[in-house]
Design a protein that fits this description.
Elements (H helix, E strand, L loop, with lengths): L5 H4 L2 H8 L25 H17 L4 H8 L3 H19 L1
Helix pairs in contact: 3-5
């Protein structure tokens, strides 16, 4: 995140209003809610997990056991089970 000087960014009237509340300190101004990226969208984590989960589901459909998937992906059996049920539910919804 890059530092910006308020004098260069805000119109003078807004700068005076902000100075009533804070002066000489750094302040973070968040994006609008509708402009905010979701978790993992910017760095690709979300896509990587979606691909991993799809692979887990496909291997399960191909006959892999929960224990085999646990070993391959270093996840608990409960996590594997949740991924499979969630992925199956998402795929069934998209087919409807």
């Amino acid at each position: 995140m890059e530092y910006k000087n308020g004098k260069e960014v805000f119109p003078p009237s807004l700068l005076k209003e902000v100075q009533k509340h804070i002066q000489g300190e750094l302040i973070y101004i968040p994006k609008k809610n509708n402009q905010r990226a979701g978790w993992g969208e910017m760095n690709g984590s979300r896509q990587l997990l979606a691909q991993r989960n799809q692979e887990i589901y496909q291997l399960y459909k191909d006959g892999w056991s929960f224990e085999e998937l646990e070993q391959k992906f270093n996840l608990s059996i409960e996590s594997i089970r949740k991924i499979i049920y969630k992925t199956r539910g998402l795929l069934n919804k998209s087919k409807s």
